[in-house]
Amino acid sequence: MYGFTSALIEGRLIKRYKRFLADIVLSNGDIITAHCPNTGAMTGCDHPDVKVYLSRSDNPKRKYPHTWEYSSALDGSIIGINTANANRVVKSALLRQQVPEFTHYSQCFPETPFGNSRIDFMLKEEGLPNAYIEVKSVTLADGKTASFPDTVTKRGLKHCLELAEIVKQGHKACLFFCIQRENINQFRVAEEIDPNYAQALEYAIKSGVSVLAYQCIMHKTGIELGDRIVIT
Known about the structure:
Layout: E1 2-3, E2 9-17, E3 21-26, E4 31-35, E5 51-56, E6 66-72, E7 78-80, H1 84-95, E8 107-114, E9 117-124, E10 131-138, E11 140-142, E12 145-148, H2 154-168, E13 172-179, E14 186-189, H3 195-206, E15 210-218, E16 222-228, E17 230-231
Parallel strand pairs: 10-13, 12-14, 13-15, 14-17
Antiparallel strand pairs: 1-16, 2-3, 2-5, 3-4, 5-6, 6-7, 8-9, 9-10, 11-12, 15-16
Helix pairs in contact: 2-3
C-alpha cells in the first residue's frame, strides 16, 4: 500500500482554478487554498460543494501545504484525483510482488529511458526479456464502468506507439490502467473522447502490448492496489 504521511482531512470544494489550485472550506469552517495535482478535465470530480479529502505536508518551503487527494462521486464513492498516486500505488504493488502478471520479475526500475521518453517502470529478471510498464491514472466513470482518457491525450497516444516499438525490439510492454475509483467492475477506452488515442491503443495491442486494468482500494491513510477488472 502507498501510505499518506498522515490521515486525510475532510472539506468541501468551493472552486478549482488555474488548473493547479482549489479553494476548500474545512469542516471547522476555515477556508484554505490547496494544491490540485491533476491537470486533466476531472469530469465528475470537481463539482461545487463536493466532499474532498486533503493531505498536509510539513515542508515549510511549500506555499500551499495541503494537497487535494480524493474527491467524491455523486453516489458518495471515493475518487483518487492525484495522478501521481497511480504510479506510487503500482510501484508499491510491483515491489511487493502483488501484481500476478509480473511476480516472476525481481528487479524494478522507475523512470527508465527509452528513445526520447521515460517509461514509468522497467522490470528485469535474468533469462527473461525486460518488461516495460506505462501507468495511466483513471478517474472517469459512467456507473460501474471506468474509462480513459477523459480528454484528448497526445502524450498518451505517444506512449502507445513507444510501447509498440519496445515490443518490436524484443522486450515486453504493458499499458497499466490504475483506476482510482470505488465501485468499478469494468474498464473501457473512451473512443468518443479521443478516437486517435483509441486507434493508437488498438495498434499497440496488435503489436503485442499487453493491457491491464486494476481497481484501487482507497483509505484515509493510503491507497492499495485491488483486483484486476474486465476490459470491454
